[in-house]
Amino acid sequence: MEVNMRGVVLLGDRECYVKDFPDPIPGFGQVRVKMMASGICGSDLHLYRMTKEQAKSRGDRIPGHEPCGIVDMVGQGVKKVKEGDRVTVYHYLGCGHCEFCSAGNLMWCREAKGYGGPIDGSHADYVIADERNCVLMPDSVSFIDGAFIACPGGTAFSSMRKLDVKTGSNVAVFGLGPVGLSGVKIAKAMGGRVIGVDVIDLRLDLAMSMGADVVVNSQKEDAVSAIRNFTNGKGVSLAFEASGSTKGRTDIIHSLCRGGKAVFVGVGSNENVINPSQIIGSQLTLMGSFVLPLWMTYEMVNFLDNQKISFENAVTHRFSIDNASEAYKIFDEGKTGKVIFEWK
Q1: What is the average pLDDT across 173-194?
Q2: Is the same domain home to 306 and 327?
Q3: pTM score, two decimals?
Q4: What share of the chain is helix, strand, coil (3-state, %, to 5)?
């Protein structure tokens, strides 16, 4: 088999390189997708920061789980997807026969496998995908937006659906990395009034470009006070926690109005910061959220198409896969918006 696919290999201790791999061939019910855009996620950095010993056990597994591109080869048994289709790829594979897969929640399947984890991911020229994981996109939805749908945008969309943002809803977004910035854009498109909170001025500026009404640097002013001022002392009815920080999680409780709701998606601090006594009297609703179900991916594609919105303002750096080492290094420094690999 000809060897010409480029893919990233993680070496541990914040080192990686680009290696040549055999071009993958789709099996029964599978397609090959030529990557056009794929982002680096915060969870990719956990792998990037592994020790060299941990990286050895991982081998040459390719990272990345935000695939978007063009189908360029189909395997036997494929009936709905064809060569040339523009697709965002749902990044969990499931058994296809359990109650979770049947409901579109492939990420909960007992046999779930995620791209970039147990199977080769999207920081490569191609990925192999099950036909059912390929969600077609109209030309109005860019490949970068498709990469956002696969993880950061999809996580935010599912969360905003749980919060049920409506016209005039006051929404606080804590943590303005790619997931939080996606939340700002989606909440605004749903009609919300949005206040964003972070500690990095660049990300505050990006939030304003994504439509935030107000932003707060919580290292320079008290976020809870700012949110109370934003809502005339009442507090927000809805909040989205994407920072994973102890402070963000704590401040959300004090920022909500009575009967308020919050969704938590940020993974980070392991401290126990929420006291149930704080939520009883105000009857707060606190929820977790994890990516989005497959069926909702179709809904999100339609949402972007109908609302004519894009996440591209959140992108601050674009790289060829050949420059993966620089891309990972820059994103690891934590002073960027979204970092994307692009293919021509």
Answers
A1: 97
A2: yes
A3: 0.94
A4: 35, 30, 40
Question: Residues 237, 184, 105, 269: what is their CA dihedral angle, to the nearest 10 degrees?
Answer: -80
Within 10 Å of residue 65's Cβ, how many Cβ atoms?
A: 26
- Residue 308 is which amino acid? K
| CB distance 215 to 138 below 8 Å | no
Please state, rounded to an integer, the average pLDDT across all residues of the chain. Answer: 95
CA dist 19 and 15 (Å) reads 13
Q: Which tokens is 329 given? A: 């290094």
Q: Verify that 33 and 64 share a domain, yes or no.
A: yes
Sign of CA dihedral 93, 43, 218, 214: negative
Residue pair 294/271 in contact by the 8 Å Cβ criterion: no
Range of the domain at 328: 3-151+292-342
Per DSSP (E only), the strands in 250-333 are 256-264, 285-288, 315-319
SS3 203: helix
Token duo for residue 319:
């790289």
Q: Is residue 296 a contact partner of residue 319, using CB atoms and an 8 Å limit?
A: no
Q: What three-state secondary structure class fits 267?
A: coil
Output the six-digit token pair for 164: 């049920």
